[in-house]
Design goal:
single chain; alpha+beta; 10 strands
């Protein structure tokens, strides 16, 4: 995606500002990828960009990842330049949690291609006149297709972007833009490898397609 293209977010539907974007296809059910995104305590095991996310646990069942709610506040550690860089601690508030009505994060359900799961949060701590970043994480169900082994497999697309508006957007781009371009590319590859590799169980779900990261611009995560 060209750097000049800005993507909308829930709080910025006019798509003003600057966007960072990356996407990949994953050989796994969308519900499984969604479950991995919600399993915040395991982020340090696979996520080299956002190595820690902490939200209140709204689900008392320890066998299911907590489902965040709109308005929940938390904080995260973002390692922008590299996986070993010092973390940038950012406070965030959940702005959107969209789950298909027939979906259950514990079950690999069959959903219609095109159905999407979506989690969004906004970074806090900046005057709203100066910088308004919002992160979108989206999982879309794709058509069932063949893996490299010739067997039919579930497929989905994971895409993530962060759009920020405000006069400081250009400053952020100049200071850490290259690092953010790389960080968004890293995280889609991290998630693909984590899910297809069995999410720490050593049970790969299959081989997927390549990863695409197109820097626009953004901040936080």
């Amino acid at each position: 995606m060209p750097h000049s293209q800005t993507l909308p977010t829930p709080s910025n539907p006019s798509a003003s500002g600057i966007t960072y974007f990356a996407t990949t296809t994953i050989s796994a059910p969308a519900s499984l990828v969604w479950a991995a995104l919600l399993d915040f305590p395991r982020y340090p095991e696979w996520n080299s960009f956002t190595t820690r996310v902490t939200f209140p646990n709204n689900n008392n069942d320890p066998h299911r990842p907590p489902l965040p709610r709109v308005g929940d506040t938390g904080d995260l550690d973002a390692r922008i330049a590299s996986p070993t860089a010092a973390p940038n601690v950012t406070k965030v508030v959940v702005s959107v949690v969209d789950v298909p009505t027939t979906a259950d994060v514990d079950v690999d359900v069959d959903l219609t291609p095109g159905v999407k799961y979506r989690l969004c949060w906004k970074a806090q701590g900046y005057p709203t006149w100066s910088l308004r970043p919002e992160r979108v994480m989206e999982v879309e169900v794709l058509e069932v297709g063949e893996g490299e082994d010739g067997r039919e497999r579930d497929w989905c697309e994971f895409r993530t972007w962060e759009t920020m508006a405000g006069p400081l957007a250009g400053v952020v781009r100049r200071v850490v833009g290259v690092g953010l371009d790389g960080a968004f590319g890293r995280v889609v590859g991290d998630l693909k490898g984590w899910v297809e590799g069995g999410m720490g169980r050593g049970e790969g779900e299959g081989e997927g397609e390549g990863v695409s990261g197109d820097g626009g611009e953004g901040v936080s995560e």
